[in-house]
Amino acid sequence: MTVATEHHAPERLRAAGLRVTVQRVAVIETLAARPHASAESVFSSLRDRLSGVALPTVHGILGDLTGAGIVRRVSLPDAASALYEVQDEFDNHHHLQCVECGRVEDVACAVGEAPCLHPSHDHGMRIIEASVTYRAICSDCERKK
Q1: Count of C-beta atoms within a 10 Å radius of residue 114
Q2: How far is CA 91 from the centre of its chain?
Q3: Helix, strand, or coil here: 140?
Q4: Which residues line the annotated binding site for Zn(2+)?
Q5: Signed CA dihedral, 119, 104, 87, 59: sign only
Q6: What is the DSSP string of 12-52?
Q7: Residue in 26, 8, 141 with CA at minimum distance from that of residue 87
């Protein structure tokens, strides 16, 4: 199964009320193949494939896709910039981040049903998401020490 088939980019764009463009589909495909990518790394992988694509265009597309719920913006401590991944409505996961090299991996939900974690007091709010980042040292960085 290819990335484009797997994430049904055109259908997801239409369902979100967004026009299907070559650039938007390419951004979704790039993130599906390389999750946890910055806007700059998405741009780097697209500039040779799509003539005329510019970094501000990629930022705008990521903003549109994030607003439509197709892409999730991931902000992690010590990351140089925001990272992005294709969002699956049935997926609820956390992140594992190496404090040395910055490598990021997905980690399944810690315990229980989404949103995984329940605060000691919700102050009358309905919890819709909980975010956990596990900070660690990856085995490659550990070997280098």
Answers
A1: 14
A2: 12
A3: helix
A4: 98, 101, 138, 141
A5: positive
A6: HHHHTT----HHHHHHHHHHHHS-SB-HHHHHHHHTTTSTT
A7: 8
In the numeric block, which tokens belong to residue 105?
């991996």
Low-confidence stretches of the chain (pLDDT < 50) are: 1-5
Query: How many CA atoms lie within 13 Å of 97's alpha carbon, on the beta-carbon side?
Result: 17
Q: Which domains does the chain have, with CATH numbers?
A: 3-85 (1.10.10.10), 92-144 (3.30.1490.190)
Identify the pLDDT of residue 116.
61
Tokens of 144: 């280098």
Query: Binding site residues for Fe cation, as ranges?
Result: 113
Single-letter code of the amino acid located at 137: I
The one-letter amino acid at 38:
S
Residue 103's pLDDT is 86
Annotated binding site: 98, 101, 113, 138, 141
Write down the pTM of the prediction: 0.77
